[in-house]
Design a protein that fits this description.
Layout (H helix, E strand, L loop, with lengths): L15 H9 L6 H5 L5 E4 L14 E17 L2 E10 L2 E8 L13 E11 L2 E5 L2 E4 L11 E4 L8 H14 L9 H6 L5 H9 L4 H30 L13 H8 L7 H15 L5 E6 L6 H13 L3 E5 L3 H15 L6 E4 L5 H12 L5 E4 L13 E7 L6 H8 L6 E6 L5 H7 L4 E5 L10 E6 L3 H13 L3 E5 L7 H17 L7 E4 L5 H13 L4 E4 L12 E6 L7 H8 L10 E6 L4 H12 L3 H17 L19 H16 L1 H19 L6
Parallel strand pairs: 4-6, 9-14, 9-15, 10-12, 10-13, 11-12, 13-14, 16-21, 17-19, 17-20, 18-19, 20-21
Antiparallel strand pairs: 1-8, 2-3, 2-5, 3-4, 5-6, 5-7
Helix pairs in contact: 5-6, 6-20, 6-21, 7-9, 8-9, 9-10, 17-19
Bound molecules: adenosine-5'-diphosphate and magnesium ion.
The site of magnesium ion (MG) has 5 residues, from loops.
Length: 683
């Protein structure tokens, strides 16, 4: 059988089904996966020292000749194996406990390279459980070099992995060169095969550095090529809908707004309108902090597409948010004759059918919904504009699916999670960006306090006081990452407890992700209507919920949330005329936690918090682990590799602009990022 990258790992020599199952736990299923199982770190065992010069208490490497090997049983249940080795400068003793089998590895006169922690005892050099390798002319893998340390497990050891990967490199060593020669030359990149070799078994420190740079570059370059190509496809000249200049409907909607738009809103709106009036399809992201007023821009854009006889669709990540948008749009647009419908997972079969029919027949102008919108049976008569809210909850792929419901609709993406520029380039690399930094006038910053659990009574009594003054509030339950079910349990418990104590005389309600949609809706509606004063909730309220009368929020277990997420939560208050208060409760009072939460108390700017969060938690954790649209990066770290990212993006821009160059790269994209981009690059 021919061995290739797609070969199942169990067919590799020395693996077999049992070992294959263990490798699967490390995410290794094929030979290709094995080759891409990059080291977690390296140990420099390349500096050989004479025995006499070995430093006490440190990890050292030396070369020596085997003398005697002995076995003894000083106590019951203990075997002691001792190996004496020597070089021209002295002798040293290797020791193993309860590993009698090591004895048969050694013959007198054998030459070894040994790495381990050196202890000097009574003038004698001793190393317990050293890493030992026989010098026999073959490449050294475990000692005498810069040694890779892999993500491993109890059943998959370093030595075994190293040997296996060495073998894989020798069997399938020929790594094709995916990068165009121009790019390689211009960015002075190491060749493909050499990079793979040196990322695993670096010749020296410089080779390791060059190999890593090459692989990081490659990964980011390919991703950028994909994103930029997507952008070029979407922005093709003449392919889109050319909306007309604002007609009477748009003017009426704008004139009826209860407030004047801020300068940033006006700028973003002008950019949106210009894109819509252009013959190329719009691909625009509006990035604005919580409460900066993005929804109203979406409403105006939707009015504009309706005015021209097209349909608009707005997709939100949660039912609550979809409901709320529906409510807002109904207020802003319905009085001017725009026909609005909701499409969520909780509709009855009959209502759903009805909405689908009206959509197909063009009897609905604007539909607001959840993921339910991208289902196959949702058909539009003439989709002109797609808006996705809180885009970080959706991937490129879901956006593409909704977009595909019309020939070439304009696309507007909104996010309240301000993301750092470098991350924006990877997540939103295919979009044009408008930024709203300014908040509507008159907003008072939310006073934020980070306190320990000993303040709990005061916190809840304060909420009671705010309610007595006519305000409303939120209690956010601790995040339980591992399980939805446990989270719901904890939330229910907290709710019962509060109702039985502090909130005895206050009407409160619980909302969480596992409630029936109708129950959730009823609770939310009562909160909107002011009948419910305190909403005890999990992070389902994280995005978009808008009740200006809510002025206080207590977050339990605040240390479990990321800063960006806390900022989102805090964005639920401070939306009205009254001073608002956010209290971050945490029983974890370690200095790091205090410091992190103190940042929340000091900083109100979501962009600044996002940068901090990315710095503190790294890109993987940034959006919370549950949902995000980021592709899986194998080696690049967009926080540490910013420099390479910018270089790779420039290179990708040149590549995508040159059809000949791009043709060479294109086939690789589907393989690498197919899941992220959908079908576009497959076949
Ligand atoms: P977000 O950007 O978080 O989605 P919203 O669109 O929900 O923010 O707006 C937050 C609140 O601010 C809403 O109640 C909205 O009506 C109000 N708002 C939006 N723009 C302005 C403005 N220019 N002046 C005053 N209030 C505004
Ligand atoms: Mg919003």
């Amino acid at each position: 059988m021919a061995i290739g990258r797609d070969t199942n790992i169990k067919f590799i020599k020395g693996v077999g089904p049992a070992k294959a199952a263990m490798l699967a736990k490390l995410g290794i299923f094929t030979l290709g996966d094995l080759l891409e199982h990059y080291p977690r770190r390296y140990e420099d065992r390349s500096q050989l020292k004479p025995i006499r010069a070995l430093a006490d208490g440190e990890l050292q490497t030396f070369q020596a000749i085997v003398g005697a090997v002995t076995d003894s049983r000083p106590r019951r249940g203990l075997t002691l194996t001792k190996l004496t080795v020597r070089d021209a400068t002295g002798t040293a003793q290797m020791v193993w406990f309860n590993q009698p089998y090591v004895k048969k590895w050694f013959r007198p006169g054998m030459e070894l390279i040994i790495s381990g922690k050196v202890e000097r005892r009574y003038g004698q050099v001793q190393v317990s459980h050293p890493e030992v390798e026989v010098v026999d002319g073959a490449d050294l893998l475990h000692t005498g070099r810069i040694v890779p340390v892999y993500p491993a497990s109890e059943s998959v050891g370093q030595r075994w992995l190293r040997t296996l990967i060495r073998q894989a490199l020798d069997a399938e060593g020929d790594r094709p060169e995916f990068l165009p020669p121009e790019v390689l030359a211009q960015h002075k990149l190491m060749g493909s095969r050499a990079a793979l070799e040196n990322i695993h078994f670096p010749a020296d420190a410089a080779a390791l550095e060059a190999a890593r740079r090459r692989l990081v570059f490659e990964e980011l370059y390919l991703l950028q090529c994909g994103l930029l190509y997507l952008k070029s496809l979407n922005r093709q000249e003449g392919a889109g809908i050319k909306h007309g200049p604002d007609d009477a409907l748009v003017k009426k909607v704008e004139a009826a707004l209860p407030f004047a738009l801020t300068k940033d809103q006006r700028t973003a709106l002008a950019e949106i309108k210009a894109d819509m009036e252009d013959a190329r399809p719009m691909q625009r992201l509006v990035q604005g902090d919580v409460g900066s007023g993005k929804t109203v821009l979406a409403a105006i854009a939707l009015a504009k597409t309706a005015a021209d006889g097209y349909q608009g669709a707005m997709m939100a990540p949660t039912e609550i948010l979809a409901e709320q948008h529906c409510h807002t749009l109904a207020q802003l647009l319905a009085p001017h004759g725009v026909r609005i419908a909701a499409l969520t997972g909780s509709l009855t079969k009959r209502t759903r059918e009805e909405v689908l029919n009206r959509l197909r027949d063009g009897l609905v102008d604007v539909v607001v919904g959840t993921h339910a919108l991208i289902q196959e049976d949702v058909i539009f008569r003439h989709l002109g504009l797609v808006v996705t809210d809180e885009q970080h909850r959706f991937g490129v792929r879901q956006r593409a699916l909704l977009q595909a419901k019309g020939p070439t609709p304009d696309v507007l993406v909104m996010t309240a999670t301000p993301i750092p520029r470098t991350m924006a380039l990877t997540v939103y690399g295919d979009l044009d960006v408008s930024v709203i930094r300014e908040l509507p006038p008159g907003r008072k910053p939310v006073k934020t306090y980070a306190v320990g659990g000993d303040m709990r009574a005061r916190v809840y009594n304060f909420i009671v006081k705010e309610v007595a003054a006519g305000r409303q509030g939120y209690v956010v339950c601790p995040l339980v990452e591992e399980s939805d079910k446990l989270e719901v349990q904890a939330a229910t418990q907290l709710y019962e407890q509060l109702k039985g104590t502090y909130f005895r005389d206050i009407s409160c309600a619980l909302v969480h992700g596992r409630m029936k949609a109708t129950e959730k809706e009823a609770a939310m509606r009562a909160f909107y209507g002011g009948e419910v004063k305190v909403l005890v909730a999990t992070t389902v309220i994280e995005v978009g919920v808008n009740v200006p009368n809510a002025t206080v929020m207590a977050v339990e277990g605040a240390d479990r949330f990321g800063l960006a997420q806390l900022h989102q939560l805090r964005g639920r208050i401070g939306r009205g005329e009254h001073q608002s208060y956010c209290i971050l409760l945490s029983d974890n009072q370690s200095p790091e936690t205090r410091e992190r939460l103190a940042i929340m108390a000091q900083v109100q700017d979501g962009f600044v918090l996002a940068e901090k969060d990315l710095e503190l938690r790294g890109p993987g954790q940034f959006f919370g682990t549950r949902q995000h649209g980021m592709p899986d990066l194998k080696i690049a770290d967009i926080v540490k590799d910013t420099g390479v990212l910018l270089e790779a993006r420039q290179a990708a821009q040149r590549t995508v602009a040159a059809p000949g160059l791009f043709a060479a790269v294109r086939p690789v994209l589907g393989k690498r990022f197919g899941d992220h981009f959908g079908m576009i690059f497959q076949g």
